[in-house]
Amino acid sequence: MHFILKKSRPSSKKGIYLQIYINDYISGKGKVQRSYESLGYLEDLISPSCPDPIAFYTDKVKKLNDELKEKSVKQIGQITPTKNLGYFLIKAMFDKLNLDNHIRLASSNKRFQFDLPDFIRTITYAQIINPGSKFKAFERVIPSLYGANEYSYDQILETIDFLGQDYESFIEILNHHINKLYKRNTKTTYFDCTNYYFEIDEEDNLRRKGPSKENRHDPIIGQALLLDEDQIPLAMSMYPGNESEKPYLRNTIEDIKNRYNISSKIVQVADKGLNCARNIYAASIEANDGYIFSKSVHGKNLSKQEKDWILLDNENNVWNEVKDSNGKLIYKYKECIDTFEYKFTNEEGECIKFSVKEKRIVIFNPTLARKQKQEINKEIEKAKSLSLKGALKEEYGDSTKYIQFTTTDNNGEKVYVYSSLNHDKINEDLSYAGYNLLVTSEVDKTSQEIYKAYHGLWRIEESFRVMKTYLDARPVFLQNENSIYGHFLICYYALTILRLIELKVFNDELPIGQIIDYVRDFNITEYSPNQFINNTHPRSIKNEIKSKLALSQLTFLYLNKKDVDNILNAYFD
């Protein structure tokens, strides 16, 4: 294994992009290459203190390789004075779920030289405490966990690959034990999708270029996530980045119902990106389920009659206002119930027409209106600025919709250039700023109930943020498909365990971010044999955790071996 400085030219036209990669050889797989550290574009790295980034990072790579030679024989159990003890919270939830025996049974055909449940626990701790590459977990993070077993780098890579081969089964084990403890509530489920980028140049079968949530041009992988009514993760699916997310709503719901023998009605809640005739047909006709979807007020699928109704304000279209204690308008809404016609083309090319009885609720939020108007005006100003520079159509980005273009001939090639502002589109978008439309099969529920259920989607959006920020799920440093699936399985386990602690142990009184910060911050330093200093930051939330778990030692400055063992073996009632 050795480090190299990789110089590539992505399609973003910014020149040379620098990354440090690890070249390695893995038995049974041959030579593999994975990203160790992304450095950035050469032109952005140049500074007075670093006039020649290539020379600077070439020297850094040499130092990394020199250090690697010194560590060629890793000292397992090497003394590190400061260790993380905060993972005891994650361990306590693993203990309460009691997954270990079923994990062993499910993997009994694979002869590991270690305990697989302990590996899953340890790599999950590492993902929460200090996420990054698996080499980082091997080299720095796992050795920093007090009392944790350590694994070789090859063992980590090969086991992550194994877990990814059948990641759905390991999610099923987790769900089985969550259901035993807390009785899953699936009357309402929340569904959404996101994607994760890879800092690679070439696409493969899984990592494909598609619409990136972060507006990047790198190959991406899609992730579908389903939460139960308590907003705890229930299922995850991974799919190629160039595929539409819409089929994964119905496929995931169908799989959940079959896998867990759910015969009751499920109300599916999803955002406008998943609202299509095919998904409505699957929910209402095929599965006899329900749905709450948002619908774009700007979309082409919205008729003129529907658009006119959204803005109507007369005795037949009465708005209901919701105000705060000071009488300030928070939002207003109105509703109607009618039968609506839909159609779609199925996989066989047949046009399917159907009708459903729906309640439609239009909501106006003045705060959202101000925000959206600011965004529209920003795009207009951007368009005006680009027009003065004679920019081409592809340079306008999102502001393209507010421009009318003319075509000119450039040596036989059509070139689109600015003509004028599209005032009709501008006026339309300004008119509908702040409005949101919900469509639902649940005609017997009140508008307030529908609105509350829909806004439960914020938790799934937060789940994606937790995965991408706190758990650092991207960029992904692994290469083959199974290893990528295994990586996201560990991220899913980490997210689910944290949600259970947040919602079931602390009753949604401690935000997930504060829990993660506490787990990371709680470190101890051994200053003499079996004697420790508690390094937890004084502003942490240890008093709340102390009272919940009846662990007075959490606030002690000086800890002995018995104190540390009591903390590490804490158990949730």
Give the helices and strands, then pairings:
Layout: E1 2-8, E2 17-26, E3 30-41, H1 42-45, H2 53-70, E4 82-84, H3 88-97, H4 100-106, H5 116-129, H6 134-141, H7 153-165, H8 167-182, E5 188-197, E6 220-227, E7 233-240, H9 246-259, E8 267-270, H10 277-286, E9 290-295, H11 304-311, E10 320-323, E11 329-345, E12 351-364, H12 366-388, E13 403-410, E14 413-421, H13 423-431, E15 435-440, H14 447-454, H15 457-468, H16 481-505, H17 512-521, E16 523-528, E17 531-534, H18 542-549, E18 558-560, H19 561-568
Helix pairs in contact: 3-16, 5-16, 7-16, 8-16, 9-10
User: What gap, in angstroms, lies between the N and C termini?
Assistant: 46 Å
Overall shape: it is globular
What is the number of strand segments?
Answer: 18
- Helical residue percent band: 25-40%
What is the topology, as strand order, of the major beta sheet?
7-6-5-8-9-15-12-11-10
Beta percentage is 15-25%
Tell me the Rg in angstroms. 27 Å
Largest sheet: 9 strands, mixed
Number of helices: 19
Classify the secondary structure makeup into a structural class. Answer: alpha+beta
Determine the mean pLDDT: 88
- Give unreliable regions as ranges: 73-79
